[in-house]
Amino acid sequence: xxxxxxxxxxxxxxxxxxxxxxxxxxxxxxxxxxxxxxxxxxxxxxxxxxxxxxxxxxxxxxxxxxxxxxxxxxxxxxxxxxxxxxxxxxxxxxxxxxxxxxxxxxxxxxxxxxxxxxxxxxxxxxxxxxxxxxxxxxxxxxxxxxxxxxxxxxxxxxxxxxxxxxxxxxxxxxxxxxxxxxxxxxxxxxxxxxxxxxxxxxxxxxxxxxxxxxxxxxxxxxxxxxxxxxxxxxxxxxxxxxxxxxxxxxxxxxxxxxxxxxxxxxxxxxxxxxxxxxxxxxxxxxxxxxxxxxxxxxxxxxxxxxxxxxxxxxxxxxxxxxxxxxxxxxxxxxxxxxxxxxxxxxxxxxxxxxxxxxxxxxxxxxxxxxxxxxxxxxxxxxxxxxxxxxxxxxxxxxxxxxxxxxxxxxxxxxxxxxxxxxx
Length: 423
Fold this sequence. Notes:
By secondary structure, the chain is of the alpha+beta class. The chain has helices spanning 4-9, 11-19, 27-63, 69-101, 139-143, 150-156, 167-185, 200-206, 232-236, 294-311, 358-363, 388-398; strands at 121-126, 148-149, 163-164, 190-191, 197-199, 217-219, 225-227, 243-244, 251-260, 279-289, 316-320, 332-340, 345-356, 366-368, 375-377, 379-387, 406-407, 421-422. It has 2 domains: 26-101, Helix Hairpins (Orthogonal Bundle); 117-422, BirA Bifunctional Protein, domain 2 (2-Layer Sandwich). α3 runs antiparallel to α4 and α7 (167-185) packs across α12. It is elongated, with a radius of gyration of 27 Å.
């Protein structure tokens, strides 16, 4: 959520910044609400003062033996007016809060202009694309003989679920373990285990609610719970309503979890295979930092995700998302896209974002600045380090052989009992 003070003091600037996202902010409607809020707030304060003054007069009149019924009636009438004004003020504030909750973050100045992913800015490429003496297959054709079954997934649940058995299931687990070990031992993250269900407050805090409720799976209960779409939600909520000690910062968490997404509206090539599933595994990186450190932390977190791709020797490219493609809560995002020979294209495997204080304001996540002694909002960042299923299919496609077997990357062999191939 953006700072309300920006709307009161720099409304035109905010409107222009939001236009970079092609977000049409109705400044007139907001200003009308804000003007009415101020008017009712002043009225409420005047009524409170008037009632307090007349309440004191009742005591004085009573002490002098005067008839106080007229004053009592006045105080009662003022109380009724005050209650009505307070109710109207609460309604107006609720409307403003609802409006504010639907406004995306202001973009960092370094984010390029653009309307869609076609306008994203490629920063670099790493690794050599593999060459094959045979037509490379995609992970679906490779996986089905090796224990990847979308038919069983559909039988047990529905489309966009998969069952992995045998060495493919072990391969995914090995990739997860490699990622966790690397982020903990080489990058200094603290391993974290969290609930896979989250309440509405947690999802509001990180920006999934109310805008993206259609993308969530709901568990009917009282209160309502949601299956987490990413570990970002529960991990970032660790600091909700917390004032972090400056000496503890930065906080760096790594968490492996399943993720659940309805993928409403997804279609086309994304639907085939494991590219876009309702349930998938991911290793998430989350950092909680001082505001002045977030730009540097964003570069470092992205490099940590890149390092996994380098360890696995998977070709990838790094892109800076343009204004029109940057997510609702993010101020700036890098996507890492791994090369998939079966599709002959780069596909997203990690999205690393700096949210600045957007999530922190919703979460009331703060730190105590030792220079001022006052609590201030932290900056939050996160990124996939990596999506495990997509990492597995990237390994399968880049390390495939003519006979359909998969050569196991050197870095994964210790996690697979030393085996050199999967067939």
